[in-house]
Amino acid sequence: MDELNVEALERIPIPEGLENRLSKKIDEWEQAEKKAKRRHLLPKTLRYAAVAASVALVFGIGLHFLQRDKSLDSAVQDTYQDPVVARQEAERALQLLATNLSKGMEHLEKARHLTEKTEQTLNEQLKILK
After folding, report:
1. SS3 17
2. Does residue 55 contact residue 63 with C-beta atoms inside 8 Å?
3. What pLDDT digit, counting tens, does each position of 107-117 carry?
4. CB atoms within 10 A of CB 44
5. How far is CA 10 from CA 1, 5, 24, 57, in A?
6. pTM of the predicted model, to two decimals?
């Protein structure tokens, strides 16, 4: 088949409707290619929109934190104008802390005592088993 024999090719029968089927297939390929081009436009647009939204979001968050920091700076002030009242409130808070800490220590002491008793009972049972 090194040489193209035109006469032999012309003698090959062509199926009916082949030309119509080929043209339909070519049209389908062209439409698919157009759709593919349209699909490529949409993601590019979405990328630009996503970048713009990200920039706007970062800008908004930064602005929010700047506004919040300014409001916190102006809100920090002494809660008590009278130093005597402030001292009394501080002593009351420390007393409350000490009371709650003592209660916690009592519970811890009870737990330690219970642990020692359990350990002693366990050791006695182990001695009996030996």
Report:
1. coil
2. no
3. 889 899 999 99
4. 9
5. 15, 9, 24, 69
6. 0.32
